Amino acid sequence: MITFRLLEVAAAFLVLGAATAFFTRRRRKVCGWVSVAAMGGAAVLMIAVAVRAFAGAADAEVSVLPIASLRSALSVRVDALSALFLCVSGPVAWMTTLYSVEYMSRYTKDSVAKYFPVLLLLFFSIAGTVVTTDLFWFLVFWEVMTLTSFFLVIYERENRESHRAGLKYFIWNQGAALGMVAAALVLWRHAGSFGFAAIRDALGALQVSNPLLAHTVLFLFFAGFATKAGLLPFWNWLPDAYAAAPSSATAAFGGTMSKLGVYGLLRVFLHLLPLGSFTTSWGVVIACVGLASLFIGTLAALQQDDTKRLMSYHAIGQVGYMFLGIGAGLALLRTNPLLGTMGLVAGLFHMVNNCFYKSCLFLGAGAVEFRTGGRSLAAMSGGLGGVMSATMACSLIASLAIAGVPPLNGFASKWLMYVTGILGGEVSFLLPVAALVAMFISLVTLASFLKYLGGAFLGAATEVKGIREVPMTMLAPQVVLATLCIAAGLLPIVPLRLVHQAVVGLPSAAGLPALSALVGPGPNLALVKDGVVLATWAPMPVALVLLVLGAAAFFGLQRAGGAATRTVPVWAGGEEEEPALMRYRADSLYRPFKDAFHGMYPHVPPLQLSVPVFVRRTLDLDRWLFRPIARGTADAARGVSRTHVGIPQVYLLWIIVGAVAVIMTILLVSGGAP
Amino acid sequence: MLTLALALVLVIPVAGAVMAGVARVGEARGVALRAALVTALLAIGVSWVAYPAGYRVMLAGLPWLEHGSSAGLFGLLLDPLATILLLVATVIGFLTVLYSGGYLQKENQEHSVGAEHHGRFYFWLLAFLASMVGVATAPNFLQLFVFWELTTVCSWSLISFYRSPSSLRAGFKAILMTHAGGLFFMAALLVMFVKTGSFDFDAPARLDGNVRGAVYAFLMIAAWGKAAQVPLNTWLPDAMEAPTPISAYLHAAAMVKAGVYLMARAVSSGWAMPEGVGLVMAIMALVTILIALSFYFVQDDLKRLLAYSTIAHLGYVLLGVAIGALGSPIALQGGALHIICHAFGKATLFLCVGAVAWKTGSRSIAGLRGIARIMPLTATAYFVGVLAVTGIPPFACFWSKFMILAGAMQLASPLGPVIMAVVLIESLVAFGWMLRVGQKVFLGPWTPPADRPLHPLPVSMQIALVALIAGCLVAPVVGIPLVHRIVP
Question: For residue B113, which of B170, B35, B28, B31 has the smallest C-alpha distance?
Fold first, then answer.
């Protein structure tokens, strides 16, 4: 009950905050700060709820707002998985709201009434989605999430591009959500209720009685979650929509909303679906789709010029990692619980890490856009590092984290994934291959972020006059997120404990190996089997060594060498050229890659709907039914009126004809008898 | 006491109509507004008091018409189903009157209307409101039929309000087609009276065999005519010649709902509609939904687009009722809920289009651009209306559509998945199209017209829009407890 009360207060914070923000819309900053306060309050409560859940406070399920005929009610229960999402999305949401206060001053033509209240409602729906245990309400919150995020995508009223992107986004996601509605109704029919427990039983029975239907249902759910997460082949909306929304909203999408695809996946495949052969086969599917996504998405990212589009394609790639880990975990869960758990934990841990660095990256790109007004890497003059050094530092940390460079958090989760893949070689040769692909793609990720960092921040600071660092309220969220990236990288065992608890708290994953069996007691990660250390990762010592080596290089080589730093013009074979001309521009990077993989990222042209003319004519009943009837009636009436000529003799004639007709009829009917 | 209050709900709009009709130039609006407000408040109060037990009283009979089962022939009824229609008719009726006060002005860029026409307008509008109250509170088919035909007459006059050749034609077409349906209603009345000696709502259920099927089929055809269902659908788009508040009220919220209400009433009293008729009704509803959808893409007039959407949504109600008749009461509950949910959503949309036309003089999808710049409230209302009508939670029609779908899935026959597929596809396509139209019309860069001034939207129209936005959220909250009382 306490959990429910806390969540109620959090919801009140968000809803009332949204209302207050709406009424203070004319004063932009006030509106923003009201939202920050409301989100802050809600985030603290969400974390409190999560702490309770992780501490094992078993609050009973609370049900409100019953709809009797649907046998559904808004049931709320926070298990460890819900808690994990609450405690990750709460702070990220808070940080993005804080960032928005200053950032939204960019948009002078559009009212913040379209932004802050909607953003708060988005976070409300996200929290609602993860805490409910009723499939109907899950879908309600899910759709509200799509709805609110749509309004954030189309925020700029005069920008046609963003409207197109928003429409595409909503239609894709609405289609996917309607598929989930269908699946939910099929399950409801068999379960008689929307409660997760009843649905789990029904799905278990359906696996046996009608496997095809069960597969269809699982496919519809998978498609729904994959669409929200932006996975291939349901990705088409993502780069457009992410690029169109304000960067602060994009950070919220990347850091919180799209991750609910992962939440849904785990909820369905490890909670609603009892462990069995279906788990294994769907695990293979999920892993394959994840692998394809991370490969194609990241390679496509390499070719992008727009900073936000580049990061959006990485969102596709990164979610591929998560699906790969979770899919591999699901596939191995029955035959090899140890590796199975490892994969699941790796995928979910990667999701947590991704929330931090992906939102930090979007905020960084927003900061660059805020100051320069541009997002095109080719058009950037570079050199921002000199004036926006803090932003650059945060973006650098986040870039290295997403690329999986040790000792940051991205590496920790990827390491778990690699271990799963390589050790999974004893089950299938495909797993080491997947691990190799994932490693290769990490390299590509690094390459594409070097392009971003180089294009935006490096170079001579000659052309960036008048550009300053972003204000404190925009910088602080980036610093916090970057710090979280470092912290989770240096002490991965802390978040891993929560992640592991979240996984094993799910009904189909109960009884899986303890975390110490997977990675040892900590703080270093070590997989020990039969007394042999199979793999180990020690972030602290490595970080220490790196720090010492760095310091040694700096002091030992540069200082001790005694060479002074000289500032000289660029030398180009004797010619004196402008620095801008001599720069190696971002769009020139990775030509061979671009040529080799050109067009591999499929583009779907927009659907053109048209109804053939003959169909329309056939459907137009006026044309062939009612108008002829009306015309016929009018003609007949005219015919009758023509008989009224006004001459008595003619009327007399009609009377006689009529009398004869009546007599004849009587004779005919009576058959001649009197 | 309740009898008196309920009777007043019926009498006040009649009195208001007469007073507005004879009022001096310039006074009709105030009279009508007060009458509509009192009616709406009384209706809400009566519904509150009568819930949940319902209320029924018979007041009078006819000496020459022996009526078998009950004490009288004429009376008043307020059960949950009636409450739904009563609330729709009176609350949206009041908002329409309120909105009309701002709409019918000289500043109206689409159709400038002088105060000398107000008396005629408000007379017919309030008379219509009274007829709808009569339809909602009728305790048997006979009384329902009387008010049913009165709505037809009022509708004819209001469609032809501008008296242009096209509006006269449209009004004539509407009265012909709906009255053709009304004749089937009359036939059904005669048959049931001859066979059972009663006009009670459950009289058709007491018939046997083919006669019962025929009576239900006749009622169904009457409903098709009134609710503009295929094949009697073509009058509704033409009726968009009417002033926009009229289109909103008559052709989205109220009159067309009388048709579907008739079926909901016939089915839920006795639950004895033969399966064959139910099957025909369900299939024709699906056909209607798809045909109406196919016309979306060729419309340039915003109002005609909404008219086709209305046809589709009345199809939804009939679909729910039909599934209910096939053995799944939750779908009938969903259909009844759709009556109130769709009424608020569609009234919002129509009044938005009215506001746009009032200000810019245009209803053309191709011609309008970026008007959210000058009409932020209207733009908000339009998007809320689209979301409400196409069924995006938490807005109105999501709840009703979901209940209809749930009912469809309960059916044992393979019809359930077919219905679900059609409904989901229609939802997605209609949603995408309406959203696209909204983006085209309201978003994008705005260029002010050079040739005419832009008057600010009258406050009364703004209040009506805000109230309807709220209604799109509140309608299911009010409706769900009510429809749960409609059980076999």
Answer: B28
Q: Are B342 and B400 in contact (CB under 8 A)?
A: yes
Q: Could you write out the DSSP letters of every residue in B189-245?
A: HHHHHHHHS--BTTHHHHS-HHHHHHHHHHHHHHHHHHTT-TTS-THHHHGGGS-HH
Domain range spanning residue A651? 643-674
- Strand partners for A536: A526
- DSSP one-letter string for B273-299: --HHHHHHHHHHHHHHHHHHHHHHTT-
Domain count, chain A: 3
Query: Which residues of chain B have a CB within 8 Å of the CB of A184?
Result: none
What's A537's DSSP letter? Answer: E
ipTM (interface pTM): 0.94
Please indicate, yes or no, whether residues A210 and A298 belong to a single structural domain of this protein.
Answer: no
Which residues 103-132 of A have a C-beta within 8 angstroms of B?
111
Is A201 in the same domain as A301? Answer: no
Q: Is A27 on the interface with B (CB under 8 A)?
A: no
Of A44, A50, A51, A54, the closest CA to residue A13 belongs to: A44
A279-288, pLDDT tens digit by residue? 999 999 999 9
Peptide bond into A471 cis (omega under 30): no
Judgement on whether residues A213 and A280 belong to the same structural domain of the protein:
no
- Please state whether the predicted TM-score (pTM) of the whole model is above 0.90: yes
Q: How many CB atoms lie within 10 A of CB B193?
A: 18
Out of A16-20, A138-142, A340-344, B62-66, which region has the weakest mean confidence (pLDDT)? B62-66
Tens-place pLDDT, residues A158-205: 888 899 999 999 999 999 999 999 999 999 999 989 999 999 999 999
- C-alpha distances (whole Å) from A113 to each of A126, A367, B386 are 20, 22, 20
Residues in B touching A608 (Cβ below 8 Å): none
Dump pLDDT digits (tens) for B382-402.
999 999 999 998 899 999 999
Asked if pLDDT for residue B56 goes beyond 90, the answer is no
Of A139, A179, A626, the CB nearest to B234: A626
